Amino acid sequence: MIDTLRRRFGLLGRNISYSFSKGYFTEKFSDEVFAGNSYENFDISEINYFTELVKNNPDLKGLNVTIPYKEQVIPFLDKLSKKAALIGAVNTIKFTKSGKLKGYNTDYYGFKKSLEPLLEPHHKKALILGTGGASKGVAFALDELGIPYTFVSREAKENIIDYNLINATTFDNYKIIINCTPVGTSPNIEACPDLPYEFFTDKHIAYDLIYNPAETQFLKNAKEKGAVIKNGYDMLIFQAEKAWKIWNK
């Protein structure tokens, strides 16, 4: 039986009133099995307020972390799990019994678990749109799955291509396209990454980490060409349950 003494959890981010996590855990905690647990949003305008947040909330037991702090929060933590250190991004923080803050990454787990059922032999390479903290977890999951990938950004850098280089040949070589950018998130639901969508086929997977709206313009455009589409909702559930296990171990 899980300890039902009052325990507080929350989400660290900026402009997070839309948060999946608060709704998910509030509903979870409505079950009498989890009585005494609560979940709230900690919306801070910059990461430097994190220290004050921790100081003013000594009864916190765990936090989820979202945009834009998955990388920025790392210097404020006492230690990282091995995988979080390798990934270079944190989306789960555990407040240990000794008062230390330990960072974990459950994004990679959620993404991997939600992508695996869609994979077929021809899904050999992936394009990752975006280079932020979420993309790092995705890249780590693809490494574990043995799928080579290339990052795409608005500016080409070392090991990163820009959108202008994406053409029919790119789509022939990369059958998995993953949107790790916030482009297309509500309320800007008509926006989408700048891609030649006409080259999507029924051999492609279009995966969008966004879950609101459930079908982004990116996914709609890919679906019109026959692609298998997937949004980030299942990934969020898997990563949230993984975070819950971490907080309770």
Task: Give the arrangement of secondary structure elements.
Blueprint: E1 7-13, H1 20-29, E2 37-43, H2 50-56, E3 60-65, E4 79-80, H3 82-87, E5 92-95, E6 101-104, H4 107-115, E7 126-129, H5 133-145, E8 149-153, E9 160-162, H6 168-173, E10 176-179, E11 205-208, H7 217-224, E12 228-230, H8 233-248
Parallel strand pairs: 1-2, 1-3, 4-6, 7-8, 7-10, 8-9, 10-11, 11-12
Antiparallel strand pairs: 3-5, 5-6
Helix pairs in contact: 4-5, 4-8
How is this structure best described in words?
The structure is a single chain. The protein starts with 6 loop residues before the first strand and ends with a helix. It is built from eight helices and twelve strands. It has 249 residues and is α/β, with parallel strands linked by helices. The chain has a six-stranded mixed sheet with strand order 2-1-3-5-6-4. Helix 4 crosses helix 8. 30% of the residues lie in helices and 21% in strands. Helix 1 (20-29) links the parallel strand 1 and strand 2. The mean pLDDT is 94. It has helices at 20-29, 50-56, 82-87, 107-115, 133-145, 168-173, 217-224, 233-248; strands at 7-13, 37-43, 60-65, 79-80, 92-95, 101-104, 126-129, 149-153, 160-162, 176-179, 205-208, 228-230. It is elongated and about 55 Å long. It has two domains: 7-104, 3-Layer(aba) Sandwich (Rossmann fold), CATH 3.40.50.10860; 108-232, Rossmann fold (3-Layer(aba) Sandwich), CATH 3.40.50.720. It is an enzyme of class 1 (oxidoreductase). It comes from Flavobacterium hibernum. It holds the Pfam family Shikimate_dh_N. Keywords: Amino-acid biosynthesis, Aromatic amino acid biosynthesis, Oxidoreductase. Its EC number is 1.1.1.25.
